[in-house]
Amino acid sequence: MAKIVRAEIVMVDLKPKVKRVDAIQSFVSQETPIVRITDADGVTGTGYSYTIGTGGPSVMALLEKTLLPAIIGRDAFEIERIWRDLTFLTHATTVGAITAIALAAIDTALWDLKAVKLGLPLHKLAGGAQADIPLYTTEGGWLHLETEALVDDALKAQADGFSGCKLKVGRPLFEDAARIGAVREAVGPAFEIFTDANQAFNVDEAVRRAAVYQRLDIGWLEEPLPADDIEGHVVLSRHTSVPVAVGESLYSASHFREYLERRAASIIQVDVGRIGGITPWLKVAHMAECFNVAVAPHFLMELHVSLCAAVPNARWVEYIPQLDAITVHGMTIRAGRAVPSDEPGLGIAWDFEAIARMAVEGSRKTIT
């Protein structure tokens, strides 16, 4: 047993490379808490999570004041026990976004430490089910872009070997249909077009729009309704043959269980940074497998590529580059497919000098 002897935290604020606008918001920054956990043998694991522009200082305070002090002296390999103990420790704020994001930063660091210590890449330590995963791109499908730009990006992605793209929806219905139709005409029938409403619709509008989108052969309709409206998703799923995708705004494995039991979704988009880490992510992915439902996680491609390769029912990795400024090199892509790293650990090549330069003032703390 090697006990945890030190934890370090820092936060960087990553600005998107391109303007990102969806039906409900514009993304101006990604607050990224980074946790480093070191055991008595001197082995260090690095983990992280994120917020979209707000909440980062609250996550950092929870890490510094409550969660990280509670793991000093613990066996770093007891990841499941630590995750459950920390979840109970914060039961007054669980299930909640701030707590789940903080837990994710610790849990991913512990998985990294374990993988490094065992000399295994995450995708093999966690299952080793697939060699690579198809990629689709979201980075050129934002709602503010005009149709010509959507078409150009989709054609470029297709030429680069990607298998699909995602378009944000939420303009007037006739505009959405025209935009999707233009991309479909340009890329042909074999290229997947996914759509994402970012929880913008109510049930009747989602049913109406799904009927129109269906004629354009979309691959799925993502987050059509508020994430807590399970019954609305049931109604929608019964009214359309378009696959309904949910998950980026769910923060508990139990919420995913409810969706799966009700057959309220047919694509699960569990996000390791929002579900509370790798430990619950794997639970959700395997639970979805038991329901014969595919996993296509939201965001965090640099980490999700390894997790997708670990499970048999992962179908897609979403291409949105965001860690380039704080990594030495990005995710490996071959013929439009995401390839997990064979380096021990999470497979993320952190640039710690860049992280130090970009650290939010006052965010660096050490807990012993």
Automatic annotation (TrEMBL):
Query: In Gene Ontology terms, what is a biological process of this protein?
Result: carbohydrate catabolic process
Question: InterPro entries in the record, alphabetically?
Answer: Enolase-like_C_sf (IPR036849), Enolase-like_N (IPR029017), Enolase_C-like (IPR029065), Mandelate_racemase_C (IPR013342), Mandelate_racemase_N_dom (IPR013341), RHMD-like (IPR046945)
Any single GO molecular-function term of the entry would be:
mandelate racemase activity
Q: Which cofactor does it need?
A: Mg(2+)
Gene transcribed to yield this protein: mdlA_2
**Domain Mandelate racemase/muconate lactonizing enzyme C-terminal span(s) in chain numbering:** 147-243
**Name this protein carries in UniProt:** Mandelate racemase
* Origin superkingdom: Bacteria
Q: Which source organism does the UniProt entry give?
A: Martelella mediterranea DSM 17316
Q: Name one Pfam family in it.
A: MR_MLE_N
By its UniProt entry, which PANTHER family does this protein fall under? ENOLASE SUPERFAMILY, MANDELATE RACEMASE, MITOCHONDRIAL ENOLASE SUPERFAMILY MEMBER 1
Q: Which UniProt keywords apply?
A: Isomerase, Magnesium, Metal-binding, Plasmid
Instruction: State if Signal is listed as a keyword.
Output: no
- What EC designation does it have? 5.1.2.2
